[in-house]
UniProtKB/TrEMBL annotation, chain B:
InterPro entries reported for this sequence: 3Fe4S_ferredoxin, 4Fe4S_Fe-S-bd, Fe-S_cluster_ET
Domain 4Fe-4S ferredoxin-type, residue spans: 1-29
General function of this protein: Ferredoxins are iron-sulfur proteins that transfer electrons in a wide variety of metabolic reactions.
Protein name, as recorded: Ferredoxin
Keyword Transport appears in the UniProt entry: yes
Organism domain of life: Bacteria
Record key words, sorted: 3Fe-4S, Electron transport, Iron, Iron-sulfur, Metal-binding, Transport
Pfam family for this entry, one: Fer4_13
Species of provenance: Nonomuraea indica
Lineage, top ranks: Bacteria, Bacillati, Actinomycetota, Actinomycetes, Streptosporangiales
Requisite cofactors: [3Fe-4S] cluster
Keyword Iron: yes
Length: 403, 63
């Protein structure tokens, strides 16, 4: 049976750690607007073509209001990073969203990232020292991928990095789609909320030179700033967004580059490829997670198919990033590909706020690894790499390496 | 080459500045794009075209 005649289960099951499911190519060419069944049992519409995904993400008629009564639920358990009440406290669109974005955006400019770069390199060097001290083989994800983005975002926000184990767990539950039960999720969210409230109260008494202290200093909505609750949710959101995604991406990027070691060797021979290699890893990440869900408030047409109001659409950026109509030899990893307008960070007004940060972290990791551990290789065959299941953000369970 | 930017659309992702810092900058107070050079020198044309292609907000025009 072809993908056109059936309702596919989504996420599409895929055992391969680095390769895409075969259905993507078939969907793009024969069924770009497909019916899928989500883990909750509800139905949604899956988009896999580049032009459609890009257009929908940039179109404000496709909202993030997944709490609407007729929106599809993603998982049976309910609350997730997409649909929880938290997600609704930050304005979803229009001028209010732009206002929020610009208040926070000043912390994420390319210039700020350039200034943070030496500090990131220092942190990465120290983590590599620890890896070397403990000896090979090592899990690159636990030893470098996870701690680096956590240290960086903690410093930016003014959050003690010692507490990272705790918010690692909280963020895991927030990004959960299937792994945790409703009770666990609610308990974790409650603890995280209380933790952040205490932290903000301390910053009100004694401001530091960090993002959260400065957001407080701007004042409330009447002074052009954010409400107390919005600052709190922004802090939680940045802590979660700032570590899980990048942490997983570091592991996947290194695994992709080592899976065919000629890639690693090209980078050793010419480190000026680091920037484009990072973009190409983001593009080819076949394990980027759920994709982005949107709720349609009015009837609209996509690729010749009319979508009624109330439709829940899922945009698969990972499938779109392999669209042969847009990328030459789309399935090949070309470390020099340029321009590379991939959609790993989304598109339009909601496009990832932290992308300059994420890019800089990924580049720094590669620079430091190539310099310090040029003999790096995977310590297991590619076929033995395992995916993490059930999270909105995809990743590998571990990335075993030696050098 | 003639470059334009749309401040309203810009989402402050900073891609343009990473690629062509001689041509684009971002305002310190909110990250919105600043066009430094509407008619950049030849040597920057490739980088500007790349920035326009990858700008997530499609906020950069090149003629
Ligand atoms: C490789 C790493 C990352 C990936 C793949 C990624 C991906 C994404 C994507 C696809 C979106 C769009 C969501 C939507 O349209 O609904 C997004 C939004 C966002 N990301 Fe990232 N992200 C990464 C790292 C980061 C980092 C390091 C931060 C910062 C601390 C961050 C903060 C945010 C925020 C705040 C938003 C919401 C923006 C808005 O709604 O205006 N992300 N990210
Ligand atoms: S790349 Fe586009 S969205 Fe990002 S700062 Fe430049 S103009 Fe703005």
């Amino acid at each position: 049976m072809s993908v056109r005649d059936q309702v596919l289960d989504y996420p599409i099951p895929n055992d391969a750690a680095l390769d895409p499911p075969a259905e993507w190519a078939e969907l793009r060419s024969t069924c770009p607007v497909a019916h899928v069944r989500l883990p909750s049992g509800d139905q949604a519409t899956l988009l896999t073509r580049y032009d459609d995904v890009r257009a929908v993400l940039a179109d404000p008629r496709f909202t993030r209001r997944l709490t609407a009564p007729d929106a599809a639920r993603l998982s049976a358990e309910g609350g997730s990073v997409f649909s929880g009440e938290f997600a609704q406290i930050i304005p979803d669109g229009g001028e209010e969203h732009q206002h929020w974005r610009r208040l926070v955006g000043r912390w994420f400019t390319a210039k700020r990232m350039a200034a943070l770069r030496p500090r990131m390199a220092r942190i990465a060097e120290d983590l590599v020292d620890e890896l070397v001290e403990r000896g090979a083989p090592a899990d690159l994800k636990a030893g470098l991928g996870f701690p680096l983005p956590v240290f960086v975002i903690c410093e930016m926000l003014g959050v003690p990095a010692d507490d990272r184990e705790r918010f690692s767990y909280w963020s895991d539950t927030l990004l959960n789609l299937t792994r945790y039960g409703q009770d666990e999720i609610e308990a974790a969210q409650g603890e995280f909320f209380a933790y952040m409230s205490d932290l903000l109260a301390a910053k009100r008494r004694e401001p530091g030179e960090d993002l959260l202290s400065e957001l407080i200093a701007v004042g409330g909505p009447e002074d052009g700033g954010l409400s107390d609750l919005q600052i709190l949710v922004t802090g939680m959101g940045l802590l979660v967004a700032g570590h899980e995604t990048t942490a997983n991406m570091i592991g996947k990027m290194v695994a992709m580059l080592l899976a065919d070691r000629t890639r690693w060797e090209s980078l050793l021979a010419d480190p000026s490829l680091i920037r484009t290699a990072v973009e190409e890893s983001l593009r080819l990440d076949s394990n980027s997670g759920f994709g982005l869900p949107r709720y349609l408030r009015e009837e609209t047409e996509v690729s010749g198919t009319v979508l009624p109001r109330g439709t829940t659409v899922v945009c698969s950026m990972a499938a779109a990033n392999r669209d042969e109509d847009v990328f030459d030899a789309a399935g090949e990893m070309d470390l020099r590909r340029s321009p590379n307008p991939h959609l790993a960070f989304g598109a339009g007004a909601h496009s990832c706020l932290g992308q300059a940060l994420a890019r800089t972290e990924l580049q720094v990791v590669l620079e430091v690894l190539l310099r310090r551990l040029p003999s790096l290789e995977l310590a297991v065959p590619v076929a033995e790499l395992e995916r993490v299941e059930g999270l909105a953000v995809g990743g590998l369970a571990t990335v075993p390496v030696r050098w | 080459m003639n470059v334009t930017v749309d401040e309203e659309k810009c989402c402050g992702a900073g891609q343009c500045v990473l690629l062509a810092p001689e041509v684009f900058d971002q305002r310190d107070d909110d990250g919105v794009v600043v066009l430094l050079s509407p008619e950049p020198a030849e040597e920057h044309h490739a980088a500007v075209r790349e920035a326009a292609a990858v700008c997530p907000a499609a906020a950069i025009g090149v003629r």
